[in-house]
Amino acid sequence: MAGSVAVVTDSTAYLPAAMAAELGVTVVPLQVVVGGVARPEDIGSGTEITFGADEVVAALRADKPVTTSRPSPQVFIDTYRRLQARGHRAVVSVHISGDMSGTVAAARLAASEVAAEGLTVEVVDSRSLGMGLGFGVQAAAQAAAAGAEVEDVARLASRRSLNSSIYIYADTLEFLRRGGRIGAATAWLGSALTIKPVLALADGRLEPLERVRTTQRALTRLFELTVAEVTGPDETGDGVGTSVAIHHLRAPERAGELAGLLHERLPGLGEVPVAEVGPVIGAHVGPGAVGVVVARDV
Predict the structure, then answer these.
(1) SS3 for 276?
(2) Backbone phi, then psi, for 202, in 5-degree steps?
(3) What is the pTM of this model?
(4) Can you name the CATH fold of 5-30+70-162?
(5) Which spans of this chain does the record mark as coiled coil (predicted)?
(6) Are strands 196-202 and 90-95 parallel, antiparallel or unpaired?
(7) Where are the alpha helices (DSSP H) in the chain?
(8) What pLDDT does residue 206 have?
(9) Across residues 95-122, what is the average pLDDT?
(10) Cα separations in angstroms, 219 against 25, 243, 291
């Protein structure tokens, strides 16, 4: 709509293409490099050659090098200009944590470039990823559709993302080590073959939370941590007013089992979407990973 606030995010929000279209959100893909070949992360548009989870999982299992990189500032400049040409007077651009990707920095460079052309762009560092970012994007898009001002849309996106928790189980720390995304968890690498790490998002970075000995125990801990987040210290909450999503990479049975347990324990949750992550996050957590996002209403 002419004069409205547009919302932009990146592919690590893992919003289904149909949902992004319904919300009117523009998705900018990050880049994936497999064996020296660079392509955008698949966002389901079908308009270009991309890398999806299949190619990245195959490469990881074959020990081929897989790296990821931010979109260029020019990609964001072009995106913002297209939205301006469609009649939008402002843009809220919400992205993966700046401590895990240079995407926010690229978006800010682009925002400063288009400011001289009369377009206001508010860039939000979600300090999150996956649906921790995605829930913030949804809130922003809904506010923009309701006619909120750009500052209010950006503020809501930030609050919704910051008011979320993420817990991740990975079969191994090896892929996180390769990508340099594990912070203090490097201390665990010596025993990485004998432990099952549970990680948490802390101040925009993945940090070690617990070490367990079996996959089943790790999934149990994800369940327990989620219930504790939802029910609160008095354990009286039933999930009303809280959104939960589950991510995985090539572990649909594990993710489905966890979703079922949460539905039984927290009947007020409503739908718990289960979505496979794409190659950017998948390259770092590796096959078999399962993550839970808990977002509280703001």
Answers:
(1) strand
(2) -130, 115
(3) 0.91
(4) Rossmann fold (3.40.50)
(5) none
(6) unpaired
(7) 17-23, 53-61, 73-85, 103-115, 130-145, 150-162, 174-179, 215-231, 252-265, 279-285
(8) 87
(9) 97
(10) 33, 19, 9
